[in-house]
Amino acid sequence: MQDHPVLGQVALGYSPMIDRQRAVIATRLTVFPARPDAAPDPAALLRAFDEVWPPAEGSSAGAPLKLELRPLDPGAAATRPAGVRPPLSLNLAGEAMLNAMLAINPGPNVLLEVPAFMAADPAHAAALQALNAGGTPLMLKGRPLQPLPPAVLACFSHSVVEASEERRSGPGHATSLRQISTVQDGVRSSADVKAAFEHGAVAVLGWQFDDPLPTTMAGRKVPPDIQVVMELVSAVDREEPVSKLEALLKRDPTLAFRLMRYLNSPAFGLSVEVSSFGHALMLLGYARLKRWLALLLAASTKDANAKPLLFAAVRRGLLLEELVRHQGDAELRGEMFICGVFSLLDRLLNQPFSDLLAAVPVPERVRQALAEEGGPFHPYMELVRAIESSAVFDIRECSEHLLLGPAEVNRALLLALRGARQLD
Predict the structure, then answer these.
(1) In this predicted model, what pLDDT tens digit does every residue of 220-255 receive, in sequence order?
(2) pLDDT beyond 80 at 26
(3) I want to staple 156 with a disulfide (CB 3.0 to 4.6 A). Which of 46, 86, 140, 283 is the partner?
């Protein structure tokens, strides 16, 4: 990734946009300026983000990506061809920064959120119409106090509404926003997601981290496919011979296919194609292979509601790995990756960590972070959670505690998001 000095002038947080099938259809990136009145170069920001969400081949300001920009209807994700990536939803948390962005054309790859108070200001009407005409998709954030002029309202494809707001409460919202779709912000649980869709939302923004944690496995059996991966992780940890590992993997050919898919992805960075499990072990060794089995274990759930959690788990692993890359310790990076991927394993597999960690061997530092909320990895997990929550003061406090500058943290996040998209 290129050096982008502008990354030292902002703090970044992120969350998923989720459709009715619980698939993640876009990433929302929240950008905080270093100072409330600061306006980092918007073109420089977009160049940094383009490394994660590159403009589609052949796209231009005059030729918007119609497939990506149509209303987020329930069937949109199912009809999106393979290889077409979901867009970036950009939430700029600073009026000066947003004013600067409105003065340029971000293009069809960026779904730009505009606060209702700015959309209602006649001073911005011409800029909004110019962006819309130039192919930049816009979402209205919040509800206006008064109806928007029809020409301005026509610029927006969706309205982002907080969970606490009523979609049609208030005269302005009722009369002017009825014709555009609602994306509900601020969901924190599966119940929130379900309620949002029942009330007509076409997508939601947020995480499902407030769901109750599993308490015990008593009376429940581990599904066979998950059991195979758990046994495989344990066998790799014991450095069993290839023949035994392959025999385990043959019990579920689907898992073998998924593992080969991960190993041959651009994110893995191998110069040759992996043709078999034995070949992978020869190229990687036991330690490096184990971290990708951790990813396979996290992806073993068949619960559709778990898709956003898997989205988070993969990005947590890659982000933790990037945050310590400068230390030059391969073992540390591998443990950090496993820590991040396993951090949501209790929710993904509906098993408490007390049971999971008895069946799946993990390094001691990982066990401390997951089971005890302590140890040397815990401060890094706190930083990751702050980034997921887009809590700017917590991001800065956690970064300072770890002696990490804004540019280091933001670069690590973008590298993690790019690597995760290559695995999706």
Answers:
(1) 566 776 777 888 888 888 888 888 888 887 777 777
(2) yes
(3) 140
Q: Are 345 and 364 in contact (CB under 8 A)?
A: no
Contacts of 244 (CB under 8 A, 6+ apart): 235
215 within domain boundaries: no
Q: Are residues 40 and 130 in the same domain?
A: yes
The answer as to whether 11 is a domain residue is yes
Residue 29 lies in a domain: yes
Check which CATH number belongs to the domain holding 159 and give it.
3.20.20
pLDDT digits (tens, 9 = 90+) for 329-341: 888 998 999 999 9
* Final residue before a domain boundary, out of 144, 179, 206: 206
State the residue range of the domain holding 64.
5-206
Which residue pairs from 44-47 have beta carbons closer than 8 angstroms and sit at least 24 positions apart in sequence? 44/4, 44/5, 44/6, 45/6, 45/10, 45/101, 46/104, 46/106, 46/107, 46/110, 47/4
Last residue of one domain, picked from the residues 149, 177, 206: 206
Asked if residue 20 and residue 128 are part of one domain, the reply reads: yes
